[in-house]
Structure formats: C-alpha cells, structure tokens
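Researcher: Please translate sequence to structure tokens.
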Amino acid sequence: MLNAARDVLAEEGHRGFTLRKIAERSGVSLGTLTYHFKDRASLIDGICRRHEQRWRAAIQQWSEGPPLTGSPEAFLELILDQHLNERFLERAYRFDAELWAMSMRSDDAWAVLQNAAGGMADIYVDAILKIVPDLPHAVAASRATLILTLIEGLPIFSRADRGNVDAAKLKAEVRDLVLLLVKQPTPAG
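Model: Translation complete:
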C-alpha cells in the first residue's frame, strides 16, 4: 500500500493522491486501506517513516562494514553519496515536489514533512559528531539542517531530465562543500 501511495503521489500529483486511487493501485478495498491508514497524511507519514527506517538500517549495515570502520569522513561521504544519488532519481524528486505542494496546503502534511526532515537531520548530526566530537550538538544540528536544505533543494535547479546538469560534477561539489562545512571551527560567541 505504501509503494502504491508513493507511486500515485509521484505520478498523479497531490490532486490525484486519493485514497480510492491508492486502494485501486494496491489491489485492496478502500476499507482495508483506511483500516491501516485513516487518511492521506497517515499514508505520507508511513512512506516517510519507512524511508527513514530503510536509511537507518542501511547506515547500521554500512557502519559495521570493513571499509568504513574507523573513518568518519568516509562514512559521511557514503551517506552523502546515497542521499545525492536518491535526489537525482525522477521518482524521488517528483514525490518530494508533490509532498512539498501538499505541505503548503495541509498542516498534517507539513507536520509529516517536518518529522521526516528531523529524522534525516538526526542521521547527519550523528555523522557530523563522529567527525567533530567536541562540536556542540546545536551547531551540529544547524549544520545538518544546512546540509539537508542544500541536498533536498537540488532537484529544483538540477532536474536530471532536463539534461543541462553534469550530475557527477554537481554531486562532487556538494560533497566537498558539505565536508568543508562539517569541519568548520565552532563560531565564537
């Protein structure tokens, strides 16, 4: 049901994101869908939570892998690479654009979006603090917010389907910029 909901939102937009269409795409009755998800916001929340759970599971697996043990920078680069690669997938940026559109019209969708962003920010905060352990948590959280803003905003300016962006070069520049940001000294005051 969550895959169907994600696909309907990405393909048909927030106006076509109806419980009836999602139930049809899922191959379940509307009653079955609403038993598990009472409304569109709970479906969006389910999609975002599953996405975050998958990210956390992958990060756990990566952190235990041989090439990354003892290298916090390599760990952050891996997270960045995965996140950047995801941003250049057509389905991902269409889903995100529609989620943003919904969040501008719905307080429930806005709350879900904020919660999802908070989960991703926590992932970056953890990675930042592994690189700069004495960095105050508030500064790491601020830097994580900047990283998310940069990465999540990329599709607005760099839609891969327009062909006017060297995706590899852009990803490398973003990765370098993030690593510079992470290692900046703590501001005075």
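Researcher: Any highlights?
Model: Residues 107-131 form the longest helix (25 residues).
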